[in-house]
């Protein structure tokens, strides 16, 4: 048995609220969070000059800075490179799966599942980025629930859900995963957060602690979103179960 620190962070391609792209600053925020596993959204993956890291993509750069392993989930092309979601982890990776959450002609979206091994157990970490429209998010919620249903064992769901007020996404995920619904901290806009766009959901067996926004002098300017962090407890295997 042991504890893990898990986080989620929309890094906005490394662009801060001061309109300066600074991946070293992004890496500094992640170092402050000190997570065992963290999901990132809005990551440039092609190493194009716009990324600020010529010849290397942002996922590789951040992983190298933090001494972590990066797993990439591409969602679409972007400015001559690629763009999507990333999971950084200090833990062994058992498997990786990717699922499209794209809806009609709207911006392509996706979910990335990275199954990691912690204290002898497998924990399935799902990182996703939902769309802006209510109908789009309802579709993506149904697709995500099907994706969750393919995992046996403890699950974590994280990401930028673009749900400006508590609604069907948050209600459904809390009902399906946790025995309680802790208050989601406000994360957007980072300099004066009003909305809880970024969230973490965990199976009740992981006994999640309080979800908190990581708010520091650096994180208030490194992106337009604040990161969120939660500590979970990984206990003995409670037996396989199939998600509903």
Brief overview:
By secondary structure, the chain is of the alpha+beta class. 20% of the residues lie in helices and 34% in strands. The protein has a single domain, classed as Deoxyribonuclease I, Chain A (4-Layer Sandwich), CATH 3.60.10.
Produce the secondary structure layout:
Blueprint: E1 2-10, H1 23-33, E2 37-44, H2 58-66, E3 69-78, E4 81-89, E5 93-100, E6 110-118, E7 121-129, H3 134-148, E8 154-160, H4 168-177, E9 198-202, E10 212-213, H5 219-222, E11 228-234
Parallel strand pairs: 1-2, 7-8
Antiparallel strand pairs: 1-11, 2-4, 3-4, 5-6, 6-7, 8-9, 10-11
Helix pairs in contact: 1-2, 3-4
Would you give an account of this structure?
It is a single chain. With 244 residues, the chain is α+β, with helices and mostly antiparallel strands. The chain starts with a strand and ends in a 10-residue tail after the last strand. Helix 3 (134-148) packs parallel to helix 4. The chain has a six-stranded mixed sheet. A five-stranded mixed sheet has the order 5-6-7-8-9, covered by helices on one side. Strand 3 and strand 4 form a beta hairpin. Helix content is 20%, strand content 34%. The chain contains five helices and eleven strands. It has a single domain (2-233), classed as Endonuclease/exonuclease/phosphatase (Deoxyribonuclease I, Chain A), CATH 3.60.10. It has helices at residues 23-33, 58-66, 134-148, 168-177, 219-222; strands spanning 2-10, 37-44, 69-78, 81-89, 93-100, 110-118, 121-129, 154-160, 198-202, 212-213, 228-234.
């Amino acid at each position: 048995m042991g504890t893990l620190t898990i986080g989620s962070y929309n890094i906005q391609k490394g662009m801060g609220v001061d309109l300066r792209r600074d991946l070293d600053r992004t890496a500094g925020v992640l170092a402050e969070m000190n997570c065992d596993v963290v999901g990132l959204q809005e990551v440039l993956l092609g190493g194009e000059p716009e990324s600020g890291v010529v010849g290397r993509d942002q996922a590789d750069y951040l992983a190298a800075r933090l001494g972590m392993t990066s797993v990439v989930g591409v969602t679409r092309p972007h400015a001559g490179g690629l763009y999507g979601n990333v999971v950084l982890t200090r833990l062994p990776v058992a498997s990786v799966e990717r699922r499209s959450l794209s809806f009609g002609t709207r911006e392509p979206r996706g979910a990335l599942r990275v199954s990691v091994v912690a204290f002898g157990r497998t924990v399935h970490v799902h990182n996703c980025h939902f769309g802006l429209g209510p109908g789009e998010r309802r579709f993506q919620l149904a697709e995500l629930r099907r994706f969750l249903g393919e995992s046996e064992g403890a699950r974590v769901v994280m990401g930028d859900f673009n749900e400006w007020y508590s609604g069907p996404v948050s209600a459904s995920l809390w009902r399906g995963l946790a025995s309680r619904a802790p208050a989601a901290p406000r994360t957007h806009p980072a300099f004066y957060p009003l909305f809880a766009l970024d969230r973490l959901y965990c199976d009740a067996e992981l006994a999640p602690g309080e979800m908190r926004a990581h708010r520091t002098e650096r994180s208030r300017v490194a992106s337009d979103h604040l990161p969120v962090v939660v500590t979970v407890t990984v206990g003995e295997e409670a037996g396989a179960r199939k998600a509903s």
